[in-house]
Design brief:
The chain has a single domain (5-115), classed as AhpD-like (Up-down Bundle). The chain is mainly α. It has helices spanning 5-22, 24-37, 45-59, 62-74, 79-115. Helices cover 84% and strands 0% of the residues. The protein starts with a helix and ends with a helix. It has 5 helices and no strands.
Length: 116
């Protein structure tokens, strides 16, 4: 079940840019909310991205999984931290989270290879 997660990430980024041109107020507001929500505070940006990834897995949003694996890595999350996040998502989401956890693991593997 191999997908090209780097391509998926880039495609989503481009589509969000197109959407921003069509509904700029909404997308600018969403972008500002994402930035503000993921800034370092009592929780680090890395921790917040890991939380977002766990939620993405449990709600079964492939696009969200791709984005938050990517962003967690950029925020400094290690492979081990992402795998533990997948484990917690499985705890909270059961069988479906195993399937989407596999998606996250596959995305992680691809992004880590790209960075090396």
């Amino acid at each position: 079940m191999t997908k090209d997660y780097s391509k998926r990430y880039n495609d989503l980024s481009n589509l969000m840019g197109e959407m921003g041109a069509k509904i700029p107020n909404i997308m600018e507001s969403f972008s500002k909310m994402h930035t503000a929500s993921c800034e370092d505070g009592a929780l680090s940006a890395k921790t917040k991205e890991l939380i977002a990834l766990g939620i993405a897995i449990t709600i079964r949003c492939e696009g969200c999984i791709v984005c938050h694996v990517h962003d967690a890595i950029n925020a400094g999350a290690s492979t081990e931290e992402i795998m533990e996040t997948i484990g917690v998502a499985i705890l909270m989401g059961g069988g479906p989270s195993v399937v989407y956890g596999c998606e996250a693991m596959e995305a992680l593997d691809q992004f880590v290879v790209l960075e090396n």
